[in-house]
Amino acid sequence: MGGCTNCSGKSACEDHKGEMLDTVAQWMDKLYPTRIWGQPNDAVAIDAGVGQEDVMALAEELSTELKGATIFREGGEGDACDYVYVLCQGRETCGLQVRYGGAELPLEWDTEHALCEFYLRVSISTMAPLAVVQQVAVTVTREEGEWMISEELASGVYDAPLLKRFQRLVALLPAYGLTHLDLGEISAPPRGYDDGQYQALFGRPAHRVNYLFFREPSAMSSTGPLLAFAT
Q1: What is the dihedral of CA 64, 61, 102, 55, to 10 degrees?
Q2: What does the pLDDT look like over 9-34, one tens digit per residue?
Q3: Cα separation of 140 and 228, whole Å?
């Protein structure tokens, strides 16, 4: 079984990773002159970040390009990004169209069995022209008369059925002025930075991805009533 040591593309891959990490370092320096998590330079962020209308437009275009449903989600409190979910396994109307898109509950949903779906989640920074992608497993169940939904985030994209669409998605992002960052390469604390109150909130140091994109740890899960999230 091959690996990085024997891969003929190792040199090019290492060059790409080096360029990507240089890009990350440059944006970190610009956005965090104090080097403290939670204290970005708002003037730089406002100038360089991707606006919500542009992210919503991107969601529509990706739906056409990737031949699948896309769902826009506004970033939550403390996030420095907005989100586009790309449905990869599952049928419309899907769970996240109800949770975030305001779609009505489908009458044909099976109340006896769980609904299982897989998505790619594109996080697009509101502070810089950067994007990161991870896979998401969604389960919708009917429990004691109430629809429940769980969303489980992975720290990357691993499952084979999602990889082809992931590769296509990554290839499209530069056309929209976005630099794709590998989540695994930015899932570590940056040297020389102070993560402020982050450890008190989440019990671990802030990673680069938490400075540039979302607040929560990259691999986590959430569960709650489906309709409580619907708009």
Answers
A1: 160
A2: 445 556 678 899 999 999 999 999 99
A3: 13
Q: How many CA atoms lie less than 13 Å away from 27 in the CB half-sphere?
A: 24
Cα 134 to chain centroid, rounded = 5
Residue 179 CB neighbours (<10 A) = 17
pLDDT in tens, 128-173: 999 999 999 999 999 988 999 999 999 999 999 999 999 999 999 9
Beta-carbon contacts of 204 under 8 Å, excluding residues fewer than 6 positions away, are 217
Alpha-carbon distance 42 to 34, whole Å? 12
Check residue 199 and give left, alpha or beta (phi > 0: left; psi -120 to 50: alpha).
Answer: alpha
The residues facing 139 across adjacent strands are 116, 150
C-alpha closest to that of 119 among 69, 73, 80, 155: 69
Residue 52 to residue 185: CA distance in whole angstroms: 26
